[in-house]
Amino acid sequence: MLLAKENTDTLLLAPTGSGKTIAFLLPVLARLNPKKKGVQCLILVPSRELALQIGQVFKQMATGFKVSCCYGGHAVKTEWHNLQEAPALLVGTPGRIAFHLRHEHVHVSNTPMLVLDEFDKSLSLGFTEEMAYIIGRLSTLTQRMLTSATRIDPIPGYVGLRSDVRVLDFLDEKPMIPHVTLKKVNVIGHDRLSTLFRLIGRIGNAPMLIFCNRRETVEEVSDYLIDKDLIHDIFHGGMEQDERERALIKFRNGSVMILVATDLASRGLDIPQLENIIHYQLPENVETFIHRNGRTARMNAGGIVYLLFTPEERFSYPENVIVEEPLQDSYPVPADSSWKTLYINAGKKDKINKTDIAGLLMKKGGLRKDEVGMIEVKDRCAYVAVKRALVPAVLKLLSGERIKNKRVKIEAAL
């Protein structure tokens, strides 16, 4: 908070899951002026999911200030309408923010604060040109805040950091996340897929995030799991935004226990209480290894990280105690989750909230409180987990029902 008042440029280095979002939102909030119009703080992020997460956290803080999120895959027309009344806090990906600036949909010439969250990731994804353009339009900046879970050297000149930049470094000298147990799973020959399947059986009915290096590999693993009749979902940059969002919702609410993903899922995603990480393929560098593992052991919780590799592959990351995880020839296929996700075609813009949805499910759908799981309400739709065995009966009972006088469509989320 003191740094915010001092207008000090700040570089915050801290492990994934350590609370960097709140760490920069609190000093930003301290400087927002309710009497001032226009964008007072611009936050640039490398992914749509991170933009949405920051926007959601800020809304939950109930500050009274408007926040808008802009990102690829979101309707430009919707964003343009939202920007007609400039938000105090504007969050977005570099490509989409640059688009709005070029088309004069929003103005940042009087914006005093800039936050570059997960800045190193933005650079690795090739946003340099867009970021340089955007920062060049911020002619009245008085404070820059950069965050990362890995050290950045050097920081490009276009960022404009002052020589007296304050560095807050909370990264341990040993870059491994505490409380993580590393386990090696031997892959013999070209048996990686079947090894993965046996490992899934060994882990059993518990949430697990499986990392692959390429989209094509994610699809290959998914095809294999489909052949094995194993419910799962996938997450990578080639998917539409609503598909990615739906995959994360189903993973969060427990209706899907297995998520196969690229490294897009290694940062900035709200996936709580995840105990198992599987490196189907070894990551290409130490930083990626750290960020993948940061999806578990969050906020000092425990976690297990499994690494699949052949005798020819080398585990050349920071030295840690790694134990071998022997696998049997076969395991029972994990049972499907007891939860299933329902989709409702109404949301916040229709004045519908979680209480409305829970009330409908219990009063008209005949469900008990413990048969209704996590509810997530978006602008134009909502998702709710209910007990899988009860879904057919619930859908039949709720056919043609209304919420707040609006007839809604309720169906199983694909």
Low-confidence spans: pLDDT under 50, at least 5 residues? 173-178
Average pLDDT metric: 88
The count of DSSP E runs of length 2 or more, i.e. the number of strands, is 20
CATH architecture of the largest domain: 3-Layer(aba) Sandwich
Radius of gyration: 23 Å
Biggest sheet details = 7 strands, parallel
Overall form: globular
Determine the structural class based on helices, strands and strand pairing: alpha/beta
Distance between the amino and carboxyl termini: 44 Å
Helix content: 25-40%
- The helix tally amounts to 13
Strands ordered across the widest β-sheet: 3-4-2-5-6-1-7
User: Which CATH class of the largest domain applies here?
Assistant: Alpha Beta
CATH topology of the largest domain: Rossmann fold
Q: CATH homologous superfamily of the largest domain, by name?
A: P-loop containing nucleotide triphosphate hydrolases
What is the strand content? Answer: 15-25%
Query: Please, how many domains?
Result: 3
Q: Can you offer a commentary on this structure?
A:
With 414 residues, the protein is an alpha/beta fold. The chain is built from 13 helices and 20 strands. It has helices at residues 2-5, 20-31, 48-60, 76-83, 94-102, 119-124, 128-137, 192-203, 215-227, 241-252, 286-293, 354-363, 391-398, and strands at residues 10-13, 41-44, 67-70, 89-92, 113-116, 143-148, 166-169, 180-186, 208-211, 233-235, 258-261, 276-279, 303-309, 322-324, 339-344, 372-377, 382-387, 402-403, 406-407, 410-412. The strands form four sheets. It has a seven-stranded parallel beta sheet, sandwiched between helices. A seven-stranded parallel beta sheet has the order 10-11-9-12-13-8-14, sandwiched between helices. It has a four-stranded antiparallel beta sheet with strand order 16-17-15-20, sandwiched between helices. Helix 5 (94-102) packs across helix 7 (128-137). 42% of the residues are buried.
